[in-house]
Each structure stands twice: as structure tokens, then as C-alpha cells.
Q: What sequence folds into this?
């Protein structure tokens, strides 16, 4: 305790000035029970001016309701009617008492700022937790609906596939019988005409059955089955199938097989045949007179097939729509299921090819198919898809909500996930059993993300590391990659991008 | 007025004393004292001196100091935060040691945000066996007068 009288006069004077300036002391002296008998200090500073003294004193008296006036009391940070905060001291004095008011406004302002920030952070955390719960709920609901839809879709697909498969066996038998009959009726033109009509109907049925089977497989389709394709034999098959249809309408069918070239293209022949038969039967259907032609070209890298007709043509506004399922409205006089061109488009996409259409009403149509050859077809069969991943991932994030979201995202991808809220434990675990992926927050308590990666790398751990950071700066990215992280993403995490990057890292 | 921070103690006093409301959150430091005279059926009106104490989820020395001499406690919880109800009940238990005879009333605030409430109705049904409970909204005024009136009615004389 400082000995005030011992201080030099000038110091005491300065100390007094400072005390008065900062604490604005006000002493109100009372005799007995609240009889004001003395005021020392700046009463107006606390809103206790002469005019409203009685009312203000009432308010002060309220503060001591229920309290003993003969005991020393301290009430810190009391907000007065004028909004100013004071430390209020009650000092008993032989049956009387004094109230000492010391200004606490600046201390209150500082404390309020600090307290406000802390409280708002807790309230925001609570709100965030609830929002995440709501999102999880929505996600579960979507997942439930998605699986119901998938189940219904699978059922529909299975039904269509079963039915169309059941078509194939009798169709094959019927074609065989027609062939036998055609051979034995070579000398009977009338019977030949009947058999031709029967063959046309069988071709229609076969195309429909194959299209239904493909439709039942769904958008994803099955795996491609590439093999060497004999283009000459393929052209002959197409001619054999389409000729009866063309003849019935008096159309010329011109088939130009590719010039023999070695080696032949490596393609999925069944799918290629289905594309060509659909395009050709469509061409015959919409051509009243003239010709339908098929030209195949193979340059060793790309197969080009051109199917042209002199039919009614397709107006530009219908050209996009004709590739949608069950939509044959673009061309008048249409018959059939309206599946053909949608199946064609799907098959072309599965084979990573392109299909161009050049047509105008009255000028006929020309479909040009281009399919990449062997290398592309075999690569496509093993291209990284959307399948489930396998392996173990560690997530290190001190925010349990974020950690849980990352865990969900990784589990969705098929990974086994373990979460850590701090780097040291994660490092121990990663060194003991290196994970296939380590997802690490940049800013962690204690050891930071980059420090942790460096520690791992410097101990020989080679697990791929994906660093997440709220800092979208080049410096933060540089620091993460420099420390040894393989990839760097910023928060808020875009989960589609996150999944893509994880696939790339594990692919 | 006792309760966790952000439950709406200051807002309840502002609604009750001045019929005002602001949805901007401003934390209370220390204490703010207000008063209002409340009419009572067949009795003299009573002047309630309301001590709006900074929110805490547990009673510290400073808060305990403010409690001395109190005749009643209005415990305030936020219906959208279940933890604040637990805090209010903890505060009740802790303050009982200092004020064994004080009247206690519970206000579960933010009734206007009922769709976000975490506090279940069965919980309040249980609590009503122990003390008077009011669902209040400082924003709309729902339940505010009845909660303070319950305190006024319970005070002697």
C-alpha cells in the first residue's frame, strides 16, 4: 500500500487530479434512513442534478431494498438511470451512512465488448449446430427418397429387360424358320412375297426388343465389350436386315462398306450394330421414295458411319427433341415406340462417340456417327467411374461439426474414416498405420496443419494429404503444399469438388 | 432476473417496464435496476424493483452479491436452447442456498420462435409441479405481464 502523506506534494497533486478525472467520485451522505445531508463531487455527472435529485435518490434507494444499511456494501457495475455505469459503495458511519459512486463506464465498455464477442460466438455455434442437424435431416430424407426411386427404377428396368429377353428366343427361332421357308419356296414368287412381309415384321419386332432391352439397362448401361469388328460382315448384316423393309417401300438401299484396312477397329460390335440398325430402320420409316444409304469409313483411328435418306427431313426446331425417349412427334407419319434415336444417343455416349445430324424438311436427313477406335474404347472400359472407393481416411479437424461432415462425405465415397481433433494423436496414428488419405485442417490448436504434415513427411509417412483451410490466399496454399500436402482446398468446402479431388487422389 | 446470457432477461424488463423491444442482442455487464408498480387483486399495489443481472449459467461471487436482499427470482430460459433451461434450474438450486425463502418463477422466453424450440412441452409440464412456469415472448409481450404478476401476487403482504 502506498504511503500517501510520504509522497511529494506534486505527485500527490497529480494523483488526485488523475483520480478525480478518471473515477469522478461522488459522495452522498445520509443521516438515519435516507435523509440526504451532504453532496461532495460532480452529482450532475451521474444524472443527479438539483431538479431531479429526489427521483434519482429514490432510484438509488431501490438498490438497497432488503439490504442492511449498517454493513459495508459494494455493488460493482450498476447502471444508473442516465445509462452510466458506476461502482457503488455503501459506507456505514455511526448510524448514518455514505454512498460513494465511482465511474465504471470505460471498464464496462471494455468488458461489454469482450463479453459480447464471447456470447455471440457461443450463440452462433449453437445456431450452426442446429443448421447442420437440419442439413443432415434433409440429406437423410433425400437419401431415403433416392433409394426408393432407385428401387422403383431398378424394378422397371428389370421388368423391361426380362420381357425383351423373353422376346429374343422366339424371334431367333422365327428368323430361322423364315430362312428355311425362303430356301424351299425359291420357285414360288407369291410365297416369297408373303415371307418377305413376315421377315419385315420380325425385323420390326427384333429392333423393338433390342431397344427395350437397352432402355431397361438404364442410362449407365453395361460395360463396353470391345473386340475386332469385321466391317464388311457388319455392312452385309445391316443390308440383310434392312433390305426387306426398303424393298417393301420401293426404296433403293445402298450400302458402302469400308475399304478393307488392317487392323480392324476395336469396338463393341453389338452396340455398333444396334446404332446402325436403328438409324437405318428410322431412315426407311420416314422415306417415301428415293434411297437410303449407309457408308462406313475407317481410318485406323476413327470409324465414321453415315446414314442418309431422301425422306421428309426434320425441321430445326425438332432436331434436339427427336433424341428424347418416346418422342416421335417431330416427324409426321411416325410409327414405332419412339425409343430408337434416344437409344442411339445413349449408345453413342457410352462409346464416347459423336452423332451429327444434317437435315431440313423435304431434303432428307443425314446422320453422321463418329466413334473413336481401339485405344479410346478400351480406355473407356477402365475409365475412373463413380464407383465406391476403398481404403482408410483420417480426418483431423478441431471443429467436431466440420469433422463429422467430412466424415460423412468420405463414408459416402466408400472410405473407412477415423476422426481426430488434434494433430499429435493423428500423427501417432498415421505413423503406426498409414491411412490411404489424410484430410487435415490448416489451423489446428497446438500443432498447425502444415507443421503436422511436415512432421509426418519428415518421419517417412507418404500418405496423400489433403489440406483444408479457411484462408483462400496464395500464401496459405503455398505454405500447405510446401509443408508436404498433396492438395489444398478452401473452406467452406464444396463437397462435389471435395469428392472429385478425393477420387483423383485415390485414383 | 437470473438466467444464462442471451435468454432475454433485459428484453423482458424492457417489455414489462417500457413496452419496448429490440431484437439486437446487447450483453448486460453488471446490473441494471428498474422498477414498476404492479396492481394486485384486492390488495395494495406493490413496487417491483427489478435487478437485471448479467447472464451466467452458474452463480459466481459477483452475481451472488447482487442477489442479497432479493424477495423473488424470475428465472429466465430460452426455449430455443435447452441448455439454458438446465442453466436456469442450476441457478435456482445455487441461489436457494443464499435465498431459501425467495419466491421463484420460471419464464421460458422466445415463445414467438416456437418452431425452433428445443424445450419439450412434457418438460415444462414436469416443471410446473415445482414452480410457476410461463412461456413468454419479450418480442410480442406474450406471457410477460402474467409472469411478473405471479411474482407480485406471491409477495407479502
A:
Amino acid at each position: 500500500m502506498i504511503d500517501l502523506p510520504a509522497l511529494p506534494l506534486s505527485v500527490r497533486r497529480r494523483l488526485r487530479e488523475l483520480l478525480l478525472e478518471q473515477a469522478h467520485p461522488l459522495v452522498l451522505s445520509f443521516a438515519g434512513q435516507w435523509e440526504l445531508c451532504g453532496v461532495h463531487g460532480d452529482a450532475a455527472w451521474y444524472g443527479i442534478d438539483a431538479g431531479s435529485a429526489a427521483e434519482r435518490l429514490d432510484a438509488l434507494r431501490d438498490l438497497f431494498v432488503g439490504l442492511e444499511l449498517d454493513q459495508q456494501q459494494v455493488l460493482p457495475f450498476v447502471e444508473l438511470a442516465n445509462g452510466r455505469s458506476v461502482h457503488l459503495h455503501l459506507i456505514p458511519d455511526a448510524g448514518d451512512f455514505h454512498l460513494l459512486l465511482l465511474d465504471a463506464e470505460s471498464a464496462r465498455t471494455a468488458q461489454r465488448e469482450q463479453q459480447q464477442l464471447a456470447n455471440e460466438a457461443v450463440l452462433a455455434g449453437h445456431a450452426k449446430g442446429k443448421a447442420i442437424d437440419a442439413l443432415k435431416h434433409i440429406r437423410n430424407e433425400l437419401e431415403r427418397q433416392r433409394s426408393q426411386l432407385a428401387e422403383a427404377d431398378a424394378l422397371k428396368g428389370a421388368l423391361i429387360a426380362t420381357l425383351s429377353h423373353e422376346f429374343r428366343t422366339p424371334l431367333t427361332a422365327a428368323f430361322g424358320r423364315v430362312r428355311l421357308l425362303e430356301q424351299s419356296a425359291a420357285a414360288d414368287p407369291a410365297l416369297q412375297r408373303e415371307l418377305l412381309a413376315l421377315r419385315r415384321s420380325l425385323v420390326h419386332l427384333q429392333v423393338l426388343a433390342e431397344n427395350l432391352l437397352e432402355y431397361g439397362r438404364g442410362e449407365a448401361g453395361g460395360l463396353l465389350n470391345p473386340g475386332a469388328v469385321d466391317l464388311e460382315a457388319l455392312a452385309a448384316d445391316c443390308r440383310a436386315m434392312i433390305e426387306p423393309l426398303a424393298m417393301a417401300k420401293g426404296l433403293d438401299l445402298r450400302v458402302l462398306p469400308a475399304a478393307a484396312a488392317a487392323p480392324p477397329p476395336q469396338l463393341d460390335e453389338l452396340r455398333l450394330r444396334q446404332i446402325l440398325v436403328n438409324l437405318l430402320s428410322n431412315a426407311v420409316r420416314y422415306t417415301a421414295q428415293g434411297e437410303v444409304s449407309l457408308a462406313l469409313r475407317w481410318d485406323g483411328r476413327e470409324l465414321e458411319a453415315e446414314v442418309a435418306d431422301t425422306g421428309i427431313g426434320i425441321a430445326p426446331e425438332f432436331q434436339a427433341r427427336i433424341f428424347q425417349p418416346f418422342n416421335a412427334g417431330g416427324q409426321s407419319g411416325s410409327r414405332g415406340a419412339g425409343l430408337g434415336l434416344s437409344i442411339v444417343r445413349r449408345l453413342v455416349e457410352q462409346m464416347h462417340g459423336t452423332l451429327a445430324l444434317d437435315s431440313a424438311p423435304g431434303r432428307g436427313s443425314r446422320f453422321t456417327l463418329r466413334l473413336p477406335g481401339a485405344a479410346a474404347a478400351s480406355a473407356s472400359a477402365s475409365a475412373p467411374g463413380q464407383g465406391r472407393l476403398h481404403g482408410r481416411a483420417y480426418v483431423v479437424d478441431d471443429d467436431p461439426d466440420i469433422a463429422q461432415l467430412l466424415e460423412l462425405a468420405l463414408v459416402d465415397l466408400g472410405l473407412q474414416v477415423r476422426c481426430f481433433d488434434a494433430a499429435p494423436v493423428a500423427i501417432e496414428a498415421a505413423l503406426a498405420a498409414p491411412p490411404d488419405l489424410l484430410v487435415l485442417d490448416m489451423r489446428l490448436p497446438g500443432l498447425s496443419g502444415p507443421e503436422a504434415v511436415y512432421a509426418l513427411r519428415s518421419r517417412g509417412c507418404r500418405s496423400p494429404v489433403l489440406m483444408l483451410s479457411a484462408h483462400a490466399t496464395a500464401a496459405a496454399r503455398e505454405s500447405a503444399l510446401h509443408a508436404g500436402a498433396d492438395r489444398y482446398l478452401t473452406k467452406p468446402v464444396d463437397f462435389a469438388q471435395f469428392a472429385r479431388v478425393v477420387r483423383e487422389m485415390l485414383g | 432476473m437470473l438466467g444464462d446470457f442471451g435468454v432475454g432477461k433485459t428484453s423482458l424488463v424492457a417489455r414489462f417496464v417500457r413496452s419496448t423491444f429490440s431484437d439486437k442482442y446487447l450483453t448486460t455487464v453488471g446490473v441494471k435496476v428498474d422498477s414498476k408498480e404492479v396492481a394486485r387483486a384486492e390488495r395494495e399495489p406493490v413496487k417491483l424493483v427489478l435487478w437485471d443481472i448479467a447472464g451466467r449459467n452458474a452463480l459466481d461471487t459477483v452475481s451472488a452479491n447482487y442477489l442479497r436482499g432479493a424477495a423473488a427470482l424470475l428465472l429466465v430460459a430460452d426455449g430455443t436452447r435447452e441448455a439454458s433451461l438446465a442453466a436456469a434450474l442450476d441457478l435456482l438450486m445455487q441461489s436457494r442456498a443464499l435465498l431459501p425463502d425467495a419466491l421463484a418463477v420460471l419464464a421460458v422466453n422466445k415463445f414467438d420462435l416456437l418452431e425452433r424450440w428445443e424445450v419439450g412441452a412434457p418438460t415444462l409440464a414436469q416443471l410446473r409441479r415445482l414452480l410457476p412456469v410461463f412461456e413468454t415472448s419479450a418480442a410480442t409481450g406474450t406471457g410477460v405481464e402474467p409472469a411478473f404478476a405471479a411474482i407480485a401476487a406471491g409477495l407479502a403482504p
